[in-house]
Each structure stands twice: as C-alpha cells, then as structure tokens.
Amino acid sequence: MASTQSNNNDPNRLITLAIHTYDRAVILKFQLEQAGITAVLHNVNLSEPVVSAGVRVRIREKDLPKALAVVESEQAPNKAALKNDRKVLIPVDFSDYSIKSCIVGFEYARRYHGSVVLLHAYMNAERKFTLPFGSDRYERSGDDDNTLRAKALLAMKNLRSKLEKMIVDGKLANVTFETAVREGVPEHCVLSCAEEVKACLIVMGTAGTSQKERAALGSVTAEVLDACKFPIMAIPKDAETSRLANVKNVAFFSNLIPNDLLSFDLFSHLLSVNKMKVSIVHMEEKKSNQKYTREAKEQIMKYCTEHYTQCEFQMTEMKLSDDLDEFRKFTEEKKIDLIVIPNKKTNIFARLFNPSIAHRVLFSSDTPLLAVPIQ
After folding, report:
1. Global pTM?
2. S-S: 177 plus which of 29, 30, 116, 153, CB 3.0-4.6 Å?
3. What average pLDDT does the segment 94-118 reach?
C-alpha cells in the first residue's frame, strides 16, 4: 500500500506503493516499468534476495494515479472472482443483534450476486470469557464439550429456520447461505473463517452509543478490526439499516496520505459509488504542518474529483476529541448513511494509550461503519 516518507511537496519524491515478497515485488516492478513508471525495490536481502520479506516497491509520487491503474489491472482476476462469488461472512450469537447483521449482509449479497456464510463460535467449559458472537451461556451449565456443540448446532439450526421463514415472508433477501459452528476464541474463529472463504466483506454487530464501556477491549468486533485484512461493516444496535440499501451520503476519514486513495478504490469496488456525496473528513491535530496539510488536501481532492467523476466531494476539517461529539453532530446534519475508515492494524498497546479513530467511532456512533484495511 502506498505511503510517504517525508512531508515535502516534491512530485519526484519516492513513496511506497506496495510491500510484497521478493518474487511479487519483482513482478510488480516489471509491470510498472512496462507502463512507463520508474520503480525501485528497497529492503532486499542482497545475499539471499529470494528469501527477502517485506520488499518495498517505490515509485515517484507524481506517478501514483497511473501506478494505481497498474495495481488494479494486476488484481483484476481477483476482482472478477469477487464479483462472481462474493462471500459475505456474518458472525452470529442468535440475538436480535444477529438478525440485524443478517438483514444487512443478505441484502449486500443479493445486490452483488454473492452468498452468505453464517458463523457461530462457542467456547468450552474451561474458558470463562464472555464475548459477543460466541456463547457463554453454555459454560455456566457445566456441560461437556459434546453437549456444548450439540446446543450450538441446535441454535444454529433454529436460526437457519427463522431466516428461511423471513425469506419466504419477504423480510430477508433471498440468497444462498451456509452455516458453520466452531469451538474456539470467537475473534480467532472469525479471522480463520474469513481466510478460508476469502470473504469480500464481514458484517458484525456492535452496541454503538448504548455500550457502557467505550474502550471495549473484549469486543470481538474491535479485535477483528485490529487483525483483519478483509473489509468489515459494523452495524450498531440502533442503526437504521434501511439507509444502507441505497447509500448516498458517506463520511470518509482521511489522513491525507496516498494509502487513503487505495482504501477509497477498494471501497468503490465494494459498493456502487454512483452519485454518492462523499465528505472527506480530516481530523485536525495540534502539531500539524499547515502548509503540508493544505497541499495534501488539494492533492486528495484533485485525485478524487478527477478519478471518481460520478461522485460529489467536499473536504471537512474537524478537531480530534475523545467523545467525537462534533463528528456525531456532523453525521446528523449531513444525514450520513455510512462512515468509511481506512483501517490500519494496531496492537493492544496502541489501543490502550491511543485508541484509533476506528475504535472511537465504532463505540460512539449509531451510524454503520465500514473499515477498509490498509496493509
């Protein structure tokens, strides 16, 4: 993914377009050069280049738009497969939460000709965690592992029957779906299942503003956000899911870096962005280079307006506050249907001392959120 190394405005400065293994980096470098784009490789183990990991493919910043087209072309087979066999993964815990996530996930699968995988994770009697999307009700009964699994399978069977009835009654989109029941830590099960089915989207529920503990270190959704390389749509308990059927107003968080353009590109492939009104939200920081910020805004806006002519863009500056009160007011005034956040992986220490924007928004808003991964 593209990243910058300095804050100057030299169009010939080198930026990182992608980080790959040596073999993939060489292939991408060749493809870029075939398109007339100068590319260099960094972090190559000169003694054993073939075993190099984390090789950076770097280009001149001014070549970024053209390079993105090459990257998109390189990934075209995957995108074609995505369109023909989109798998939507929905973790469930058999609550009303799960039904709301199913309504959103099934509708997405219908609209984009995909299918759904419902996943439930249960934990054995020796584990005492209480986490959403996994069952803690079984541990308290003292049941053995076989009984726990039997109860989880029965609950999934009942959910399937309920969803099938909703489809017949016209309350749920009619798409193909399958179920999976696994024993283990819920977030681990979600991540491994997403890898196996190559999910194009994970739809998960959250408590939104009704959640008492905003930090929510035990939340499966937060844990998956931190570790997942797949797009995640988080549906707050009180969200108006009907607005997701025809998203018109989007708030897109931006750090004003090239990575954000890659995230928006992926977002545009996940949802139809035609005629969308996109507010690019930049959170003000106290120690910021005003000149660089102004120039970065201009570059982002220029790129978006030139490459996504079917959308309407505006730049919005906000102060970064712990409660995000200003942002909540903004979402109400602009009637924001969906919040989109480029989601960079963080670890638990970063979350403890400097919670990410994704975490703050996740637990302080009733607007659905789409986290698009940045590598």
Report:
1. 0.71
2. 116
3. 90
